[in-house]
Design goal:
This protein is mainly β. The chain is built from no helices and 6 strands.
Length: 82
């Protein structure tokens, strides 16, 4: 995972094992974490996020909702449900 501050509009990269459901790395600018609805799966906590997905060249793919392992989410967003 990249170490950027999401409040600045940074794009985060998550490994395939750290999000559900897709293949390859996920590159997303996180706009919202649905923190009020954590998901228990595989003995871990996961959160749904909403944001804008990018390809590896930095081109916008479009809006994306994904379920991401809580331990990989940016700390400043873990408790945000804005």
């Amino acid at each position: 995972m990249a170490t950027h501050d999401p409040s600045t509009g940074q794009v985060w990269t998550f490994a395939e094992a750290d999000y559900r459901y897709g293949s390859g790395p996920l590159r997303i600018r996180i706009d919202r974490v649905l923190a009020s609805a954590p998901i228990q799966q595989d003995g871990e906590v996961w959160y749904e996020v909403e944001g804008l997905e990018f390809n590896d060249q930095g081109t916008v793919i479009g809006p994306r909702r994904a379920t991401i392992r809580a331990s990989r989410l940016p700390a400043v967003r873990r408790n945000s449900s804005r």
